[in-house]
């Protein structure tokens, strides 16, 4: 079975988005394509230590799944789908063990063949159970293969996220839950919070997502 290049595995509460407050085991994979694509999120990324694809350790997927202690794991990065073969194997192994798989992706890479989300009641071998796509500025590109299978669209409110862009992305995401999330860091935090609140007030179907793990001082 395939290996994964893993930076860290840890238990915590999901801090943001629809599943906020839910215990999960987080698996952070190495590598990110945002710097190579010239995406603006590199300016405010809070996981820059994940960009190097050689960082961390190479682990068989069985060893990774053995370290999952909760009914749900969250696959994050970096960009997890840079390791799509290993990710597909991980999903299959997790499902074999009765564990749901959440994916957090920037959306630039198509899902592994056979892997789009199909809903929470399925244990299809390679299907994710929850897909969060967080498209990045300046282009906010989402690979067309994600059409119709995004569960949650996470919009991080930096200066590039205006109402027109947010509405376009919500429309393209076809019914996905829209989570609007302020930036946490630095001098732009208050401005970002104000803009995020305004966006949600103006779009009552959307919801505010706060990075509650940072407020709590947990991982
Ligand atoms: S895609 Fe995610 S991990 Fe990569 S630079 Fe952007 S915010 Fe950071």
Overall description:
With 219 residues, the protein is of the alpha/beta class. It has one domain (3-216): TIM Barrel (Alpha-Beta Barrel), CATH 3.20.20. The protein contains 6 helices and 9 strands. The chain has helices at residues 34-37, 61-66, 84-96, 163-172, 189-202, 212-216; strands spanning 3-13, 23-29, 57-60, 72-76, 100-105, 130-133, 152-157, 177-182, 207-208. The protein has a 9-stranded mixed sheet. Strand 4, helix 3 (84-96) and strand 5 form a beta-alpha-beta unit. The longest helix is centred in the C-terminal third of the chain and has 14 residues, at 189-202. It is globular. 42% of the residues are buried. The mean pLDDT is 94. The structure holds iron/sulfur cluster. Iron/sulfur cluster (SF4) is lined by residues 32, 34, 39, 41-42, 45, 47, 50, 77-79, 106, 136. Residues 32, 34, 39, 41-42, 45, 47, 50, 77-79, 106, 136 line the site of iron/sulfur cluster.
